[in-house]
């Protein structure tokens, strides 16, 4: 065990160990919980109590915990003796007993006390009226699952009839209980095979362990029962098993049931077909099956052919995401996904005008055409298909080559159908057009897929029609705000690709499309709908981020009315819009900052005016969102070097933090600390101190001069008052951030030799206020009237005083205090036990932990 692991274990033991106080409280808690006269304890407290006891069993032998605390077994006996126990208490009892029985020694101990049979066997809980409560059945399943870590527990359950109870609970009316029962059977089957098998398994029953045989027979009987619910339960169990277990014996199991599963694909009943896609997909991800060339992949191909397009879609996209898959299966999966897009293209074209997306259809398109011509299924099929294609296109490493140009054409065609611009050339096209006009669901799905397709190359030939349809959506007054937002996102991604589209540039100059886009944007920035104005500003910010280095983009933007309109929106009545306007204006500065004044003079746009306006928003805006946006932009400016010379930067940072330190929003204050952090790193790098990773090493004399220079910079910018003040902030993240920055400054500015010098400097005038400052900081957020001047002997603008403060104050202690959980006292085991006693009314009021 490493030193770090040993420290962690020791820390956990100290935190969760059974203290003397807890050992005295636990018997009273158990007695109170088992007393029917007491009001029921809060379920959250019971969960925490169970968590604490679980932690105890992980840190020391469970049997020792039970023997040292006999009140636990007495609790089980008391609850079992109750004629009508509370469902929540009985559920807790079952879960606790299962937790303790996970240890084989403790399992034997509880068996000797005859507790496990009375709790989990046919003679106890199962025959009580309280079993009708789902929480009790859930507690029983969880308790059994917890104890399933050894063979005695397996034999206890199988020999005592408990496994039949689990089979029944697979069909429980509570979906939570039914799912937990299925997961329990998977766990038991895996445990049985892996702990009781000594020789390789075969398909014959005699080679399987007894418990595994019972579960496998149940699966086989259910699959052959003809009852849809029983078949679905077994298919869910198999899906979970093949998804979690990668052992070779799973293939042996599969060979026993493969023919029965395959028969579900060709039967007329479709009640179980929808379960097959997830089952086959989990199997295809297992190395046990994906490496085989046999019947499994033939079954996958059969499933892709026989399942409906809606059922086969998830299986197809999963198969296409695999890196190991036979080529013929991949072709079939691609056909499933591309068939709807192919039908869309054929429906929109004359028979000889376009041959379709698929060169050779491997399946009958009539099913897809029928779904697309039905109002009840058209939109759903297209949305699902588009979502699957978007998922594939978003993969970084796509293991299959898709026909990107044809896909782009099909996405554009769908958007044309939805906008009513397309004149259908076929009867199918006419039906699709009537269904899709104004369908927002399909529009959003198509735009998402279109945006994902922008990451792929090879679509240049139809790029003109792409921008045409996107401009239609951006211009149309019928476009809803949500569809408009997605249209902006798609347009932004495709515009970012303009420089690499040589084919498009020769047909339609970039300048032309940008002019059209900014004309539309000008209109949308003036929309009466605030969501539209907000989306427009986000679109502008996205464009600037991706295209600000391109001359044509800068010229088109600055020659339009967009910058002026954007700046006007800094005074928008809606706070979300003002925040987006701040971000957009801040990014506009990245363009104008490096340009000569003549290039931006015509736009009445200069950085000094912009900074003043943003500073005013930071000082006076009543909503927090715009103020957060301002401090975020200021930090971005500082990182990008857009704040001028060093002296200008000092003043800029100083003004910002003097405003931020009074802000009521903690995120604004922590944003101010992030600004300070960037400023400090840049200042240290500028003078060559080692905080900068590429700064050269310097001599001791030079280092002392550099430290003094840095200190003077920080004092002039009034950083230290803000940092020390933030240590006392009511919001802990602010204090943590300030402490982190101060620790970095001390490491950079105060070498060990100077720290020693500081220890004896208490009699210096500069150090008179340091003891007071230490006392104040220890009070944390309780400190009142933190000084804003040197009234208490602390001059936060004096370099010598601040060096003494950094060298004297125990920042590590403050750091530890600030990083403690705010409820570290209330989370203690003792506090929890006191809370439970207070809840059930058996503790004096002055003893309760009222927090």
TrEMBL record:
**Which compartments does it reside in?**
Cytoplasm
SUPFAM superfamilies (UniProt xref) = ARM repeat
Q: Which is a Gene Ontology cellular component entry for this protein? A: nucleus
Question: Predominant location of this chain?
Answer: cytoplasm
- What processes does the entry annotate via GO biological process terms? cell population proliferation; DNA damage response
Q: Which InterPro entries match?
A: ARM-like (IPR011989), ARM-type_fold (IPR016024), BRAT1 (IPR038904)
Record keywords: Cytoplasm
Q: Which domain of life does the UniProt lineage start with?
A: Eukaryota
Q: Which family does the record assign?
A: Belongs to the BRAT1 family.
Protein name per the record: BRCA1 associated ATM activator 1
Q: Which organism is it from?
A: Anser cygnoides (Swan goose)
Q: Gene encoding this chain? A: BRAT1
């Amino acid at each position: 065990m490493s030193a770090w692991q040993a420290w962690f274990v020791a820390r956990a033991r100290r935190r969760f160990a059974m203290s003397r106080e807890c050992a005295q409280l636990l018997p009273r808690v158990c007695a109170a919980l088992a007393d029917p006269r007491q009001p029921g304890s809060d379920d959250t407290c019971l969960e925490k109590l169970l968590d604490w006891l679980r932690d105890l069993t992980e840190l020391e032998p469970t049997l020792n915990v039970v023997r040292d605390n006999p009140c636990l077994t007495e609790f089980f006996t008391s609850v079992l003796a109750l004629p009508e126990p509370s469902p929540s208490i009985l559920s807790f009892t079952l879960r606790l007993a299962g937790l303790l029985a996970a240890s084989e020694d403790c399992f034997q101990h509880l068996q000797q006390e005859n507790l496990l049979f009375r709790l989990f066997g046919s003679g106890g809980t199962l025959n009580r009226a309280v079993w009708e409560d789902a929480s009790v059945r859930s507690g029983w399943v969880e308790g059994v699952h917890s104890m399933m870590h050894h063979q005695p527990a397996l034999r206890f359950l199988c020999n005592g009839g408990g496994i039949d109870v689990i089979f029944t609970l697979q069909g429980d009316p509570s979906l939570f209980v039914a799912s937990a029962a299925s997961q329990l059977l998977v766990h038991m089957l895996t445990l049985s095979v892996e702990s009781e098998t000594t020789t390789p398994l075969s398909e014959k029953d005699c080679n399987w362990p007894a418990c595994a045989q019972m579960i496998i027979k149940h699966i086989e009987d259910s699959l052959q029962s003809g009852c849809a619910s029983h078949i679905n339960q077994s298919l869910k169990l198999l899906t979970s098993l093949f998804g979690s277990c990668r052992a070779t014996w799973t293939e042996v199991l599969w060979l026993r049931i493969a023919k029965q599963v395959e028969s579900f694909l060709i039967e007329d009943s479709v009640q179980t077909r929808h379960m097959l896609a997830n089952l086959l997909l989990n199997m295809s991800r297992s190395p046990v099956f994906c490496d085989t060339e046999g019947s499994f992949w033939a079954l996958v191909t059969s499933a892709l052919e026989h399942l409906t397009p809606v059922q086969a879609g998830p299986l197809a996209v999963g198969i296409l995401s695999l890196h190991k898959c036979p080529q013929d299966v991949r072709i079939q999966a691609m056909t499933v996904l591309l068939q709807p897009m192919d039908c869309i293209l054929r429906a929109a074209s004359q028979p000889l005008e376009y041959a379709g997306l698929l060169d050779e259809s491997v399946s009958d398109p009539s099913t897809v055409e029928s779904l697309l011509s039905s109002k009840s299924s058209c939109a759903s099929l297209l949305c699902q298909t588009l979502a699957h294609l978007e998922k594939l296109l978003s993969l970084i490493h796509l293991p299959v080559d898709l026909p990107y140009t044809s896909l782009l054409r099909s996405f554009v065609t769908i958007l044309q159908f939805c906008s009513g611009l397309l004149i259908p050339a076929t009867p199918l096209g006419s039906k699709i057009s009537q269904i899709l006009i104004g369908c927002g669901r399909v529009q959003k799905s198509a735009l998402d897929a279109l945006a994902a397709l922008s990451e792929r190359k090879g679509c240049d030939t139809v790029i003109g029609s792409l921008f045409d349809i996107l401009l239609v959506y951006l211009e149309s007054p019928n476009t809803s705000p949500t569809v408009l937002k997605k249209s902006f996102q798609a347009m932004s991604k495709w515009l970012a690709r303009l420089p690499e589209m040589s084919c498009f540039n020769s047909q339609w100059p970039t300048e032309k499309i940008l002019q059209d886009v900014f004309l539309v944007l000008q209109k949308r920035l003036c929309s009466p709908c605030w969501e539209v104005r907000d989306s427009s500003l986000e679109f502008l910010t996205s464009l600037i981020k991706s295209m600000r280095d391109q001359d044509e983009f800068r010229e088109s933007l600055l020659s339009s009315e967009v910058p002026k309109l954007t700046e006007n929106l800094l005074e928008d009545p809606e706070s979300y819009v003002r925040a987006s306007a701040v971000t957009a204006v801040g990014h506009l500065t990245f363009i104008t900052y490096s340009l000569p004044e003549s290039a931006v003079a015509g736009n009445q746009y200069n950085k000094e005016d912009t900074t003043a306006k943003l500073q005013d928003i930071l000082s006076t805006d009543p909503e927090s969102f715009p103020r957060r946006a301002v401090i975020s932009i200021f930090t971005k400016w500082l990182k990008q070097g857009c704040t001028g010379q060093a002296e200008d930067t000092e003043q800029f940072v100083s003004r910002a933090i003097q405003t931020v330190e009074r802000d009521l929003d903690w995120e604004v204050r922590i944003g101010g600390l992030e600004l300070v952090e960037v400023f400090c790193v840049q200042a240290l790098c500028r003078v060559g101190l080692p905080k900068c990773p590429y700064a050269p090493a310097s001599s001791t004399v030079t280092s002392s001069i550099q430290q003094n220079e840095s200190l003077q910079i920080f004092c002039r910018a009034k950083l230290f008052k803000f940092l020390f003040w933030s240590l006392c902030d009511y919001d802990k993240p602010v204090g943590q951030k300030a402490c982190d920055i101060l620790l970095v400054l001390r490491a950079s500015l105060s070498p060990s030799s100077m720290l020693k010098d500081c220890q004896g400097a208490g009699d210096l005038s500069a150090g008179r206020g340091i003891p007071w400052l230490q006392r104040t900081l220890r009070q944390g957020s309780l400190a009142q009237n933190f000084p804003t001047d040197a009234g208490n002997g602390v001059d936060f603008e004096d370099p010598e005083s601040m060096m003494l403060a950094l060298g004297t104050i125990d920042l590590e202690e403050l750091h530890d205090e600030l990083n403690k959980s705010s409820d570290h006292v209330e989370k203690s085991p003792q506090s929890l036990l006191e809370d439970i006693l207070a809840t059930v009314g058996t503790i004096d009021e002055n003893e309760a932990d009222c927090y």
